[in-house]
Amino acid sequence: MGAELDLAEDEAAAVFSARKIRARLRADTVKPIVAFRDTLAWGRDRLYGLFDEGQPADSLVHARAHIVDEVLREAWLRALPETLAGVTLVAVGGYGRGELLPHSDIDILLLHAGDALDQHRGALERFTAFLWDIGLEVGQSVRTVDECVSEAAKDITVITNLIESRWLIGDASLYTQMQAALTPDKVWPVGEFFRAKREEQAARYRKYDDTGYKLEPNVKESPGGLRDIHTIGWVAKRHFGAQTLHELRERGFLTKNECDELFAGQDFLWRVRFALHMITGRREDRLLFDHQIKVAGLFGYVDTDKNRAVEQFMQLYYRTIKSLSCLNDMLLQLFDDAILHGDQQPPAVPLNARFQTRGAYIEARDEEVFRKQPAALIEIFLLLQQNPKLAGISAATVRLILRDNRLLTQEAREDSRARGLFIEMFRHGAGLTRNLRRMNRYGVLGRYLPAFGKVVGLMQYDLFHTLTVDEHSLYVVRNVRRMALPRFAHELPFCNELFGKLEKPKLLYIAAFFHDMCKGSGGDHSELGLLEARKFCLDHGLSHADAEIVGWLVKNHLTMSLTAQRADISDPEVVTAFARKVAARERLDYLFLLTVADIRATNPALWNSWRATLLTDLYRSTARALERGLDNPLQASDIATEAQIAALEILKGSGVTPEQARAVWARFESDYFLRHSPQELAWHLPEIINAKPEELPLILVSMLDGRGTTVFVYTPDRDHLFGLSTGVLARLGLNILDARINTTADGFTLDSYVVMEGDGSAISQGHRFEEIRDSLHRVLADPNISVVDVNRRTSQKLKHFDTPTDVSFSLDKVRNRTILELVTADRPGLLSMIGRIFQKRGLLLDAAKIGTIGERAEDVFFITDADHKPISDPSQLDELREVLVRTLDHNSTH
Q1: CB under 8 Å to 484, separation ≥6 — which residues?
Q2: Which residues of 35-62 are buried (b: 16+ CB within 10 A; e: fewer)?
Q3: Is residue 701 part of a domain?
Q4: pTM of the predicted model, to two decimals?
Q5: Which residues pair with 112 in a beta bridge?
Q6: Is residue 371 part of a domain?
Q7: What is the pLDDT of residues 389-431, one digit of tens each?
Q8: Is the distance from CB of 817 to CB of 871 less than 8 angstroms?
Q9: Of 621, 655, 681, which residue is a domain's last?
Q10: Do residues 616 and 596 lie in contact, with contact meaning Cβ atoms separated by under 8 Å?
């Protein structure tokens, strides 16, 4: 339901007069198909031009429906008489509302009675065929009135389509009969209809994970999208017989400002959908990465120093749907009261001098409460937190909050009562996430904390972050809260156990809330966030010691994940350096939990068993280092010995003797024992002992040690082994998460790869293990194969990001090797390509840390020259950098 129907017709006529349309359609009686096609093309081009000129979207969507009306009527008259008893043509669905985008579905109903359908079947078939000939794709149903009633009674979607129908041409009395047969007293009473539409909306929300703030939203179906406005219109029409959303204001459901906000939001979303249809040339309601930059350009946005044009546009989109979500919440609650409860309102129960409960909702006792005491804008959410059985805030009070949240001025924010109420929410803990989200939804959170207000709706144009900054921050708080709750202990048992030992959980909640709050502010958001978080803590009565912990966590919230992903954490020196930065076990506990919560909220594909094991290993190693004392670090030889002892314990009873183990292990460097767990050592050893030379290479594949699927290769060393192995794995559609490369003193290699399926799922099928083994063996056993071509296509999403290759070098003095850090566009076969470059230059790969961050590959390679020495010649490093940049940028996704 949009503007009033006669007003819509007036607007449409201002764009296309019916007389002009008919004249064009009748211009060529010899070739009518050409005339109709040309008219549709003329109409489309006219609408595109008006869009570019800034014409309001509501006039464009009504004009599109208007021209289709005339085309259908003229096509009908070519096959059938205008006055035809027993058959009529009806527009249904969005077309019935008089709203069509350039490529929207055109749904029509052929309503018939008696034997009229059989009498005119030939003419009707010619009518339908003509529509296809002129390129007008329609969705058509053919029913009698009784069939309409029967289908509508069974399906909420059918009744919804029919109640917003419009008569087009034919027997108008038949359409009147259908309308009379579908009234609420005959089918779908108002209460049942409302409940069904409310559940339909809830199911739709669940489909989108109850958030409209994902980075590729559906403009029509996502929470806060156009479908929310449609739901309001459907209920209003069914209950009140309303023909226009304006009537909600007339009936007291909306104020003038709210009505203006609703129509402004609808117009914006229509313009976005119109732009999507225009640039894709098809029906497209998803704001995919492919389209966002183009749509932002059509809306006139340009890049600035702080934000790209696409980020500015998307921030407006997210703020618009937040506003529409508030209106949807409020109106559905008002409908609930009016439709389901009527005058039977439960009695009010006072909570304090300012608030009371009525049924399941909290409400203000005085319409001026927020104007008299702005701190009450915080208090109401704390009361909700302290009374978890309440379902929410009454619609009337939501209206007051939306009206008065601007009163949270600097003076109000500095009020000790407001600060005390807000920090109490973090101390209370239970219900924190839900009520911070409510505060954000109703505009209070951004008013109380202006730094948070700046990131509301702020997206980052990449494939790494899947939510806006504000939504991501609240998800991190949510993840931390779940760690505290026994009912979610099965998700992350170790985190749940560790959380139970925290002395001050509120510090972790605050750090989670603030960790990304200064994104988009220019500069290092971690450094700026430290200052913002520390000031918040001191302003809200926390001690200097607590403020320092929170500030340190915000500043270092990426440190643990970067160390685990980009450094060789099997190296005791790396662990000791990380332990020195952490300095205390208390900080380590907080940082570990914050890191896990952050990764899980950033992108669901990031969290997997391998990453969990990686972080847990770093946590345990660091905790052990702190317990020993930083002046007494662990030695590599001690760790290697411990690993061997543990592996032999696992192998007891397997038939492998300690003497056999020592004979094999004597050939291996100590790095092998540092980089592999005792379980892996025990897995490798019997297979290596039993492997016959003629059967090599030995390929093992298993789900092991909580790391995900591990592929182990034991074979005589050969040129380009890394490139061949990674090429085979890439060709199989696998993602490589980790690579550990070891060589023996007698010329064998022991390589381990942690892999998962290309979609991020675990490899669980036995036949898939066999496929990996057979494919690797076939290639590595053939000395004539020197290159593996990876023919997998680059995903469509990756093609829309430009990531120039960046290469930097540093020296690992302890391990006597060169560290090469590489950032480039991710693509299938990337590691194989890099391996070929190393091989051609006689470089040896000692280890690799593989990190894919959305569209970016951020990999670290530990390399030496052919003599196992670091590369110290600057000209050689410059040449390697130049070759990598030239090769990878030339073969990028663009």
Answers
A1: 429, 496, 499, 500, 505
A2: bbebbbeebbeebeebbeeebebbbbbb
A3: yes
A4: 0.86
A5: 87
A6: no
A7: 999 999 999 999 999 999 999 999 999 999 999 999 999 999 9
A8: no
A9: 681
A10: no
